[in-house]
């Protein structure tokens, strides 16, 4: 370039020093540290790497990382592609893109706090459950017996939602009064529920004898069964089991010791729930990049396909997507590298009882290096493993960029 080599070296030296201090040295020291024990005093060779593949928590983290790499980039890229294509021809497309992209301005910490609240179990606080309950209540049928209620001395307390609860043992079931005769016309005779081992059984019936008489709280002859009444078992303020009464008024629920509840942040759903929050943040990023690539796609090719008789789906599948393949590859590779290092969302959103189930390698690296059971030898081994997992994706990206330059 017409200048002396030492001048170029002087300009490059500060960048090279920073690169060596912040990248090369940490990588080299991590590899070195991974060969020693927790106290850094004994050489253990590759034993720490063996521990990485035998420890249950680390294996769970590795499995979750695979799920993250497969699901999160794919879903975010697919949503970005759909948003970019659908908003291309509408007037308010720019405003929609702005709204979808806005979560990118939020830090992972803030997004984690937001979605920790979104996934709250109480519908009064958790948006996800509020929507779920609202949709259910919208399409659920009205009460089969409006106005029905127990006798004041029945031991059942009314709630603000119109239901009745008890935490005491119930001998026969739930006797109700104030049921219109027209609502039970044709109803069968109520029968006592049979005891079933490991189950909670009972009967819901109209505790009124035509013409008077009978014993309150006892199923008398000619008292009608109430079919279709929802009976729920509540534990710690949450419904853990429910059943509807049959034609003879009987119901069956699991015993309290076998109740199981599903929640958004429980062990089975915590990883999909956190992936959902990640997609909420990064779908806008994918949309913006894909929209930029879509703007450079030759319109003549699309119009030619339409002239040849292709419908919009065929144009999208056979013309738009192939032409956007380089952009889609960039988005996918970028998101794959990003999710391999995911830490903040998992650490903040997952509650303590589900943290091990939502564990990922970056979080396990932190816990092994700085948590309660510190072993920086294993932490360094996880860091090296994470680097090895990221390296192939980075090499693919570098090769793709070089091919793009040659074109």
UniProtKB/TrEMBL annotation:
Record key words, sorted: Cell membrane, Membrane, Transmembrane, Transmembrane helix, Transport
Entry-linked InterPro entries: MetI-like, MetI-like_sf, UgpAE/MalFG_permease
Transmembrane segments: 6-25, 66-86, 98-119, 269-295, 315-338, 378-398
Organism superkingdom: Bacteria
Main location: membrane
Cell compartments where the protein resides: Cell membrane
Residues of the ABC transmembrane type-1 domain: 62-397
Membrane protein topology class: Multi-pass membrane protein
UniProt similarity note: Belongs to the binding-protein-dependent transport system permease family.
Protein name: ABC transporter permease
Species of provenance: Streptomyces varsoviensis
């Amino acid at each position: 370039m017409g200048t002396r080599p030492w001048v170029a070296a002087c300009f490059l030296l500060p960048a090279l020093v920073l690169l060596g201090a912040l990248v090369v040295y940490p990588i080299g020291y991590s590899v070195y540290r991974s060969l020693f024990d927790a106290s850094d005093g004994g050489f253990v060779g590759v034993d720490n790497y063996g521990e990485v593949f035998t420890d249950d928590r680390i294996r769970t983290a590795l499995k979750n990382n695979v799920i993250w790499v497969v699901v999160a980039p794919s879903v975010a890229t697919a949503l970005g592609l759909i948003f970019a294509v659908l908003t291309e021809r509408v007037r308010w497309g720019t405003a929609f893109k702005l709204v979808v992209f806005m979560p990118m301005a939020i830090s992972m910490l803030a997004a984690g706090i937001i979605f920790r609240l979104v996934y709250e179990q109480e519908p009064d606080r958790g948006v996800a459950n509020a929507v779920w309950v609202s949709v259910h209540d919208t399409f659920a049928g009205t009460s089969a017996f409006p106005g029905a209620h127990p006798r004041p001395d029945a031991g059942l307390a009314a709630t603000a939602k119109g239901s009745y609860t008890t935490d005491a043992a119930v001998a026969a079931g739930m006797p109700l009064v104030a049921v219109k005769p027209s609502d039970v016309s044709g109803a069968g005779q109520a029968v006592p529920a049979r005891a079933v081992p490991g189950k909670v059984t009972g009967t819901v019936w109209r505790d009124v004898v035509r013409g008077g008489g009978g014993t309150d709280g006892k199923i008398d002859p000619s008292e009608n069964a109430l079919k279709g009444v929802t009976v729920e078992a509540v534990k710690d303020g949450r419904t853990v089991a429910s059943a509807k009464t049959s034609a003879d008024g009987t119901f069956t629920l699991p015993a309290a010791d076998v109740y199981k509840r599903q929640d958004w942040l429980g062990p089975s759903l915590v990883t999909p729930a956190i992936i959902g929050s990640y997609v909420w943040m990064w779908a806008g990023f994918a949309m913006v990049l894909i929209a930029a690539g879509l703007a450079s796609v030759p319109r003549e090719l699309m119009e030619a396909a339409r002239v040849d008789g292709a419908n919009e789906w065929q144009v999208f599948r056979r013309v738009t997507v192939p032409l956007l393949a380089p952009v889609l590859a960039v988005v996918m590779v970028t998101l794959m590298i990003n999710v391999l290092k995911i830490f903040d969302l998992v650490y903040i959103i997952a509650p303590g009882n589900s943290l091990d189930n939502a564990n990922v390698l970056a979080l396990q690296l932190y816990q092994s290096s700085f948590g309660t059971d510190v072993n920086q030898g294993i932490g360094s081994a996880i860091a090296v493993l994470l680097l090895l997992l990221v390296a192939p994706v980075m090499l693919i990206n570098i090769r793709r960029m070089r091919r793009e330059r040659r074109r």
